[in-house]
Each structure stands twice: as C-alpha cells, then as structure tokens.
Amino acid sequence: MMNKTYKEMSLFLLIAFLLPLISIILQSIITNTLIKFVLYGIEAASPSIAATIVIMINKRCKDFFKNMFHSRHLVIAIFLPVIISCVTMLLAKLIFCFWFRTDFILYSISFTQLIVILWAFIAEEIGWRGYLEPLLEKKIFVKSMVPFIVGTVWCLWHYHYFLMNGIQVPIILFSIGCIIESYIYSFLMDCTNDNLISAMTYHFSWNLAVHIFAINPVDNNGNTFPYLIMTILEAFVLLIFLCHNKIYFRKEKH
Asked: Which letter does DSSP use for residue 144 in this model?
C-alpha cells in the first residue's frame, strides 16, 4: 500500500513538473498564437492535469471530486479568501504609496489577462491542495509540516515561469511567500471542511488582486517593496489563523 502511494505521488510530480517544460519547448517552436496560448494554459494547469490523470488511473475520480467539492461552508469558502487577498494587497499598496509618496492607482487588466486569471481558478489547486496535501497528511506524522512541504514543491514547480522571465520577484522572497501562502491555503481548507472552493477562490482572487493593485516588481520599476510588505502582511494573517486555532482547540478541550 505504501509503495502504491509513493508510485502515485511520483507519477503526479513527474507529470506536474515535466508538462510545463514540454509546453515551453513547444511554445518556442510553434508560431501560431492560438496554439501557443493553449500550450500556456496546459503549462499553468499541469498540477491539476497531473492529479486528474493519477486519479483516473486509480479509478477514484467520482469519490475525489465528491469529497473536495461540496456545499458545506460555501459562503466562507468564497468570501474569506477574497477578503484576505484583497485586504493584504490593498494595505501593501497603501503602505508603498505612503512610503514612496506615489499616487494610489488601480490598474486595469486586459481581456487576455482576465482569461489567464480565471483559468488560475482551476489550474493548480486540484493538484496541490486537492491531491498532494491530503496524500501527504496521511503519510507524514508531523502534519504541521505538510503545508511547508507542499509550499516548497509548489515554489519549485514555478521554475518554468522563471525560465520564461515571467516572475521578477527575488527567488528567496518568492519562496518565503509560497510557504506562508501554503499555510494560509491549508487553514482555509481546514476551516471549510476541506472544501476545495476555498483554495481555488484564494488562488484566483490573489492573482487578480496582485494585478489590480500592481504588487509585482515589474509593475513598480523593479521595486520589490510592495511584494515584501504583502508577504509580511500574509505572515500576520497566518499568525491570526494560528491564534484562532489555539483558542478553538482550547475550547474543545474544556
């Protein structure tokens, strides 16, 4: 049983990491704009594609999607992630504008960018928080380390974006952000009874807000300050979740 689990996980990681590489190689060869755009979509969705393939091979599709998509805590699963992402981005932008004496401007996004951001709603979280995290939780004794492991794998998976110069955030800062956000994803899943909508909504709203509030260095003449402040604010969100959980478990014991 243990060997089967590791084989499943290895296959998932192999597909999730190799598919983006194959996609960017094909994008460099093919000239058709539409095909390149589709390949980019496959590249971005490789975690969910990998998870779906592994689940289908093991004939667990019906049970998997039934357990991960349900109506329990649906309101929290939709609104809490949006609030967290938007508030952290807004505060990061406000602090940046105050510190550097710049005007507060909201950025618009193109139709193509909107399609890419909407695609992010389903592209990754079926793989990371839907498949990999629950699998690791069953096999790792120290469950508090699972989001750290998933966050590290998730960070490494972004290698293809770095290869294509799609991410200008310093690698160390980006890595710290991925791990912090991985814990936030985990807490969102926990407080919504493993409703994957919470993780998917957070991923979508985070990607949308980071564009609208122009947090990335590329939107600030290479200035990493907004991204750094956002990461610090996310760490505070994580501390709030940790404190809430301690209070909750203390009440449960009484």
From this structure: G
